[in-house]
Structures are given as structure tokens and as C-alpha cells.
Write a structure and sequence with these properties.
By secondary structure, this protein is α/β, with parallel strands linked by helices. Helix 2 (51-71) runs parallel beside helix 9 (279-291). It has helices at residues 2-23, 51-71, 90-99, 113-123, 149-167, 182-199, 216-228, 242-251, 279-291, 317-322, 325-340, and strands at 25-26, 31-32, 37-43, 76-82, 105-109, 128-132, 142-147, 172-177, 204-209, 233-237, 255-260, 271-277, 300-303, 310-312. The chain contains eleven helices and 14 strands. Helix 6 links the parallel strand 8 (172-177) and strand 9 (204-209). The strands form three sheets. Strands 4-3-5-6-7-13 form a six-stranded parallel beta sheet, sandwiched between helices. A six-stranded mixed beta sheet has the order 9-8-10-11-12-14, with helices on both faces. The protein has a two-stranded antiparallel ribbon with strand order 1-2. Helices cover 46% and strands 20% of the residues. The structure holds riboflavin (RBF). The site of riboflavin has 17 residues, from helix 2 and strand 11. Riboflavin binds at residues 44-45, 50-52, 87, 110-112, 133, 181, 183, 213, 237, 239, 259-260.
């Protein structure tokens, strides 16, 4: 009678040790040691039509594919869950996703996520989060990366004012935003104005709010009104609603500066600039760091032009065809000043 009991105890201990070994992580690095890795992506909104979310999804999927190719089997799976446009539901949806216990890592992107994650994290302190386009320090399970959007907006404002100087009637440029939020009001809008004022100090920004990230008809109405008021160049940061701005500008011989991704081909001849951030690269690199156990949780990093995460696309054939050489030269000289360190723009 003693031997089977002893054997069962040994067996139980072995199972327990194995379970511990396979499920545990290296606490310092967050390295996963089990064989199946599950990554959940929480999109705060809808992926399609929002450049920053399209890059997020692309980057995470590419990192998983690369890892699986190297491993020779499907060891990482990615599940993408959209939070939808009702922002009041995001916290519950993220909580449900976390409570499922299904994910080694939850990846998301948006300046409002750090606050939400801080609250969710209180109830699920073991969950690891990677948040892009947001900033949070000191939570040992959360790593954040944001971009230098003062640089990104400054480069947009500079080209907008150059084009307005050449072909406009008033020293005014436009910004159509989906909503107001601290990064928009304190970094992007001032950076856009600062860039324009580097061309001429009299510039003002006509700043309009759509009220959501999808209403292209409302955005078109706002753009029409701005163009009637003398605005020649509009920056749009409104997700799916951007389409309304681009179409209206195209019909009314106004111009658009695109934000986050290369937008020259969205409407060639209308889009005169693309102030971009490489969130696909950020997602790819940081998820890869997680999978190799080197993602430094607890810290917040900021990357800009000189880290090659923020840029203004100058080598697109459509940019050459649309923007005269004289303007492109001035834009290039300004970007060179940022690269050389002669011009520093802290976010
Ligand atoms: N950007 C998008 O492209 N699509 C969105 O649906 C979207 N939703 C947002 C919701 C909130 C609450 C906040 C603060 C930002 C959102 N952004 C969205 C903006 C995004 O974080 C970023 O600021 C812009 O894409 C400019 O880089």
C-alpha cells in the first residue's frame, strides 16, 4: 500500500515542478518559457481606416511570423480584438480580455491606454502589457513607447506653410482632429503651429474637431468651411473620417498633409506631405524583444527622428511630382537641422 502512494506523491511532485517550470517566467525580463505563446492585441477603436492601428496589427503579426519561422512551428499565436468606437466600453473590454488569462502579453496603442491599463493592472498584477503611442513609468508589468510627435507635427506644419506661402491667400493652415486629448492639444497642435511659424511667424491654425473617429461626412463639412475661410492646406488626424477631408480638398483644389503613414497615393496631387511614425517597426521590435525575453518592463521610452521612428517621407515619386523642387529643398533643409541636432524639439 505504501509504494503506490509514494509513487503518486513523486509523480505529483514531478507534475507540479513541470507545471511550474513550463508556466513560469523569468521575472526580471518577462521571458516566456512555455512552448505556446499567446499574444492579444487590443485595438482601441477599429483597425481599418486608422493608419496607426493598421501598423500596430501589421507589426505584431510580422514579429509572430518571424518567430514562428525561426522556430519552425507555430509557437506564437496572435489574437486581435477591436474595442470599437465607444470609448466608455474599452476598460470593460480590456478587463475581460485580461481576465480570460489567455495572453502572455497584451499589446495596445493609444495615449489613453496607460490610465486604463493602470486600473486593470491592479486586479490582474501578473499580466504583461506592451503599450505603444502612450507613456507610463514604474509599473513592473508595463512597457510603453511613445513617439516624438512634436517633431512629427512640426514637419507637417512646415510643409503646410511652405505650400501656403507659394499658393495660398492667408497665413492660415488647418487641422481637422477627431477629438481633443492631451497629446493633441499639448504636443501635436502646438508642434504643427510651431513648424508653420518657422516659415513665417504670422501663421495661425484653424483647429476643428469632428467628435469621433469615423464620420467622414462631418469631416468633409468642416474641411469645406475651413477652405471657404481661406485655408489651403489641411492636416487630418481623424482615422476613418480623414477620407472626408481628402475628398473635399481634392474637389476644391486644397491640399492635405497626411499623418502617421505614407499617404501620397491616397490622392496623388492632393496629398503634399506625409509626416510618419513607424509604429509597425515599433510593434515588430518590441514584440520581438518580449519573445526573446529582453523587453524592459517598467520603463517608458520615447523615439523620434534621430531614432528612425519619426520621419517625413521625401523619397516618394508622388512627392516629387506634386511639390515643386524649391519647396522640397526648404523642407529637406529643415529636416536636416533636426537630424544634425541644430534644431531640437522635445516632446
Ligand atoms: N487614431 C486613429 O487613427 N484612430 C482612432 O480610432 C484613434 N482613437 C483614439 C482615441 C483616443 C481616446 C485617443 C487619445 C487617441 C486616438 N487616436 C486614434 C489617435 C492616435 O493615438 C494618435 O494620436 C494619432 O494617430 C496621431 O499619431
Amino acid at each position: 500500500m505504501k509504494r503506490p502512494l509514494f509513487g503518486m506523491l513523486i509523480l505529483g511532485a514531478v507534475f507540479f515542478a513541470a507545471a511550474l517550470f513550463f508556466s513560469c517566467r523569468n521575472e526580471a525580463s518577462g521571458k516566456i518559457q512555455d512552448t505556446d505563446h499567446k499574444i492579444g492585441v487590443f485595438v482601441p477603436g477599429v483597425t481599418s481606416g486608422s493608419p496607426i492601428y493598421e501598423m500596430l496589427a501589421r507589426g505584431v503579426l510580422a514579429a509572430a511570423e518571424r518567430y514562428n519561422t525561426d522556430a519552425g512551428s507555430e509557437r506564437v499565436t496572435v489574437t486581435i480584438i477591436e474595442g470599437g468606437y465607444n470609448q466608455a466600453e474599452w476598460e470593460n473590454k480590456l478587463t475581460a480580455m485580461t481576465a480570460s488569462g489567455s495572453y502572455d502579453l497584451i499589446v495596445s496603442s493609444n495615449p489613453s491606454l496607460p490610465d486604463i491599463v493602470s486600473r486593470v493592472s491592479v486586479h490582474f498584477p501578473q499580466q504583461y502589457f506592451l503599450i505603444l503611442d502612450g507613456e507610463l513609468r514604474g509599473n513592473p508589468r508595463v512597457y510603453t513607447l511613445r513617439y516624438n510627435q512634436r517633431e512629427q507635427a512640426y514637419m507637417a506644419g512646415y510643409i503646410a506653410a511652405l505650400e501656403t506661402e507659394a499658393n495660398g491667400t492667408v497665413k492660415k493652415i488647418g487641422l481637422v482632429a477627431a477629438q481633443e486629448y492631451p497629446v493633441m492639444n499639448n504636443i501635436i497642435l502646438p508642434g504643427f503651429l510651431e513648424g508653420a511659424r518657422a516659415v513665417h511667424p504670422a501663421y495661425e491654425v484653424d483647429f476643428r474637431i469632428v467628435g469621433n473617429w469615423y464620420d467622414a461626412a462631418k469631416a468633409a463639412e468642416l474641411a469645406s468651411d475651413m477652405i471657404r475661410g481661406g485655408v489651403r492646406v489641411l492636416l487630418c488626424i481623424a482615422g476613418g473620417a480623414n477620407e472626408g477631408v481628402v475628398n473635399t480638398a481634392g474637389q476644391r483644389d486644397a491640399k492635405v498633409v497626411w499623418f502617421d503613414t505614407n499617404g501620397y497615393n491616397i490622392k496623388p496631387g492632393t496629398v503634399i506631405g506625409s509626416s510618419v511614425l513607424y509604429q509597425d517597426l515599433a510593434a515588430y521590435n518590441q514584440v520581438s524583444r518580449f519573445l526573446s525575453g529582453t523587453l524592459p518592463f517598467g520603463i517608458a521610452e520615447t523615439f523620434g527622428v534621430n531614432d528612425n521612428y519619426v520621419d517625413f517621407v521625401q523619397d516618394d515619386p508622388v512627392y516629387f511630382e506634386t511639390v515643386p523642387g524649391e519647396l522640397r529643398k526648404k523642407q529637406a533643409a529643415m529636416i536636416e537641422k533636426i537630424r544634425s541636432g541644430e534644431l531640437t524639439l522635445q516632446p
